[in-house]
Amino acid sequence: MKLDPFAVEVIRHGLSAAAEEMSLVMTRSARSPLLREAGDLSSAITDAQGELVGQGRDIPVHLGAMAYTVSETLKRVPASTLKEGDVLIYNVAELGGNHLNDVKVVRPVFFEGEIVAFAVSLAHWPDIGGFWPGSYYAKAIDTFQEALRIPPIRVATAAGISDAVVQFLKANVRDPESCEGDLLGQIACTLAGEKRIIELCKVHGRDMFVATLSRLHDLSEAEMREAILALPDGVYEGEDFMDDGGPGDEPARIHVKIIIKGDEATFDLSGSCDRVSNFCNTTLFIARSAVAYSARIMSGREMQQNGGALRPLNIITRPGSILDPGLTAPVAAGNHETSLRIVDAIFLAMKDVIPERLSSGGATTSGMISFAEPRADGSWKMLYEVHAGGEGARHNRIGCSATRVHLTNTSNTPAEMIEANYNILVEKQAIRWGSGGGGKYHGGDGVVRSYRVLAPSMHLTSSVERKVIAPFGLHGGLPGKTARLTLSRGGETTEIDGKSNLVLQQDDLVTIEMCGGGGFGPEV
Amino acid sequence: MTNIWEIGTDIGGTFTDIIAIRRDTSETRIAKVPSRAHAPVQAMLEAIEAVGLRKSDVKRFIHGTTRITNAIVEERLPKVALIATKGFEDVLEIGRYRRRDLYRLDIVPKAKSLVPRELCFALNERMTHDGRVLQALEEVEIERLVTWLKGTSAQSVAVSLLHAYANPAHEKMLAERLKDVVPYVSLSHEVNAEAREYERTSSTVFNAAAMPIAVEYLSELEERLPLGAGLQVFHSAGAMIPISAVKRRPLVMAMSGPAAGVSASVSIARQLGKSRVLTFDMGGTTTDVCLIVDGQAEMTDGKLLADRPLRQPMLAVHSIGAGGGSIVRAGAGGLTVGPESAGSEPGPACYGRGGNEPTITDANALLGYLNPATKLGDRIGIDLEAAAHAVQPIADRLGLSLMETALGIIKVANATMARALRRVTVERGIDGRDCTLLAFGGGGPMHAAGLADLYGITEIVVPAASSAFSALGCLTADFSFLQQQTLRAPLDGIDLAKVSERIHAMVALTLEPLLANGIAKSSIEVDLVALMRYAAQADAIPVPFTLPLDPDFLREQFLKKHRELFGYATTEPCVIESVRVQARQPSTTQVGRPGIDTRRTEFVPRKCSFDNAHDVMTDVIDRGTMSAVITGPAIIEDAWSTVVVPPGWQAAPDAGGNLYMTRVAA
């Protein structure tokens, strides 16, 4: 079929706009501050085969994993069994999963009786059951301890939303009321996506629409191949370390061997350490997501991020390793800690080849701490906060302060919103001046935030990396300062482990000081 | 005949538009003069001369301006000091953490703080979210602040204390003490009485930065055009506001220009009885769109200005960085339009002033839509060769002819516009295809038919005076005033007496400036809107209501609207987040058909290209004299604008000089 190049562009716009609209619907109708204030959600559209064709301006790590969320599911739930009006919900690792908190709601979009696309909503549920409020258990031995595992279930059909499924989910989470509102928001969000996709099919015709999706993959593939071809052939190795969790709880190694050959690139991650003893393992899809992001940065080009852009990439992980630990390993924090370390390792591998496309090490940790407060009725109120550190400097500019980097992009919850919704007083919210590493261009500074507990008790979870191993500088730039997490109780201040679950008392003060970014080039 | 003219002006980046209407006869005159960035008042006076009037002829002078917006976007701002609660003085540097582009490390991820660190002061004081004083503001602390402030070179001060929206006592104390220390003070609870410290502080700093600029400029205007109460500024929310009020809250004119265009659209929509209208104002560097439902423009609570949040009630004008000057690029990833623009200097390649990058205007020129004999603003001619030279590399890359490429560029540009239209309609749960497209600005009438085809819109109106439409809006808008207050009242167990009393007080406050202008109370209409949400949500949905307050009605309407927007509703508790009151005297201004342009050129047919119809000899019609229905292909021109009527479309004028465009029945 001969494609009008301009119609292709029009449909490409339409897909991005549809995905952006989905996220807007989700944010506006959500109940949890984590979704409505911090925006820990993403929306995507895939083609009928489940390959990503459109995405919102959301969170890259989600979007990277969502590239597999539908395609893997179709292997288990054949498209032929799906009917118009069906909406699937699931979160398990093997179906393009990243961690159990990120629940996917997927709607097949039918046009003239056939599936033409899928609308996918991903939202981070503040709690999804398991051992600890918030569903992050640092010492979990497996995923069963982490949270509720949901295989693909029809949460809605043409007959409407399934009350049984909704009740089942509500019975297994600690904040059932906001969970229901958020879930309805996710379903509404896929409905919005469906509407726009059908419009595109009506305007352009189904055949043109379907052919265009395939063409979009080809365009991104061509762009990615051209970019790889422009890189010098060779083998490039890089490694970086997680603070702990390796053998003997020593730093855990993340290693990459990149083989550039012609217009294809292999990312061999098998040199990374074995499955770790905490929640920093990752699913296979997280590893792929990190590589997809890094390859896009390495390309230095603008392109539509879709399935085609992944075709020239060969990604190898070693079964039993931290990045391919099997389907029941705990992975809650690997999603936003280990994933970022993969990006670090890749940047270090390429630092001499394309320094002008990269940045020095940034705050490659979520800096997440969450507070859970029990209500009288036995349900819990959840505050999940990520913290921004410094961006790594570049060859021609300083790093930005208080910025989320690479695969992450969630916002803070404003202090005024926290105080209005939780029994917490935010005593300080400042820049940690001087935390960025020096250099010709210095790294950005991290933030400092202090939380005073006003409730009789709260359950705290931490997922903070870069407390031991600092974000690196490049080409003579100095590393940024490491992160700190402390607890002040009764006049005494102690360190809190970066991966921990503990119970706080009234008047406790928890302070996080985020790491700074690394500098670039020697200081003059 | 002195003192009977009303004048509206719109001061844009390139041109200052003026429209003058004679009160008794509705005689209407239009002109355009070059804007003067460094002497805006001078340009306004020149505009008055350009329509053949003297200052003494003018009764009312209302203007919209992008002066504040431009100063903010170009970061030509006076030095502002920020006073914040201790521990929160870095709020602007921190922002919301998010970076603007997911995959680009080359661009700086966030907008930098408008206030440098050395001008941020940490004040010992603290309120709680429910308005209790946690730490009192002591006298010695104020003295410490005053001493510090005297040692800085700050020209204006922004005060943004934590939870000031819940209890403004400390901000008010500071205002009292600082009024003799610095000339300008902006208080966060006055600028934006809402929770979210970053957004409120950012808005307050914008206001503080705008104050010195606005006061200097408005004072000069008052001096050189002493019309007293007749001198007014156009408000971002689509109303007028007296100069004295603008000086204190200059931020209200941040979206002044686009809001005036929308207000003119509102008048036309009412006049023509169109219940759903999408405005499409395409200029040189930006395109503004807005939705009008049942004669009311949609409102919003804020927008991003130069990547920084600005929170205040304003018309929900969605601006995108694409206009005639937007640069077109071709890569393997596809064809893109903007956001880079050739601006007015050097401008599109076809302006022949040194621009060599291909723009949307160049594509329009190649397709024959621009009259090669016309001079824009008496200065700029059309150089087709330069346009072809700029577009050729894209055609080569795509392997298409120059005409096919130009048509494609227009199509892609229209797709960008369609996205903007979608944005403003879906936010309100409305299907844009049911709307009438109201096209104005330099590019609007040129692109309207193509955009309508793409979007499924079946009716277009190109209003009379379409090229000076924002200036017209200043004159045809309702005389209105607006108040919005945060209530945060749960609907369950609502204290009806207390809330009603508060709303009545707001109504009285809103009526005040109208009554002070001698307007009879009987001719004033009051619109009430409750902004409602579920208790656990953050975003509120507007629900119109009337007094006496009926909680059951509000709940029912909220659920209905929520269902329209999101496809579902629940039985969760709801909250009235805030209430908006608008008092207005409906406009009575009559607009005449503008006089025939005396500088018109010959209207000879020329070759134009359309989808599936290349190089067609196309009639060129004089808009000033056309009276019959024209069937496309045709080009309709006046001195300032071009209307493209492609094959398959027709255009018909009405008595008021508006053009109706519809598809020709097959």
Question: How does this structure look, described?
Answer:
The complex is a heterodimer of chains A (524) and B (666). Chain A is an alpha+beta fold and 524 residues long. Chain A folds into two domains: 5-221, no CATH class; 359-524, no CATH class. Chain A contains eleven helices and 20 strands. Chain A has helices spanning 5-29, 33-36, 60-76, 143-146, 163-170, 176-204, 206-229, 284-299, 307-310, 338-350, 415-421; strands at residues 41-47, 52-55, 87-90, 102-111, 114-124, 153-157, 160-161, 234-242, 252-261, 264-268, 313-316, 368-374, 380-385, 424-432, 446-453, 457-463, 484-489, 492-495, 499-505, 509-513. In chain A, the strands form four sheets. In chain A, strands 2-1-5-4-3-6-7 form a seven-stranded antiparallel β-sheet. A five-stranded antiparallel β-sheet of chain A has the order 14-15-20-17-18, covered by helices on one side. Chain A has a four-stranded mixed β-sheet with strand order 8-9-10-11. In chain A, β12 and β13 (380-385) form a beta hairpin. The mean pLDDT of chain A is 95. By secondary structure, chain B is an alpha+beta fold. Chain B folds into three domains: 73-214; 255-474 and 590-666, no CATH class; 479-585, Dna Ligase, domain 1, CATH 3.30.1490. Helix content of chain B is 30%, strand content 29%. Chain B is built from 16 helices and 33 strands. In chain B, strands 13, 14, 15, 18, 21, 22, 29, 32 and 33 form a nine-stranded mixed β-sheet that branches. A six-stranded mixed β-sheet of chain B has the order 3-2-1-4-11-12. In chain B, α9 packs across α14 (469-476), α10 packs across α11 (384-398) and α10 crosses α12 (402-426). The model of chain B has no long low-confidence stretch (mean pLDDT 87). Classes of the chains: A alpha+beta (524), B alpha+beta (666). Chains A and B meet through α1, α6, α7, α8 and α11 of A and α3, α7, β20, α12 and α16 of B.
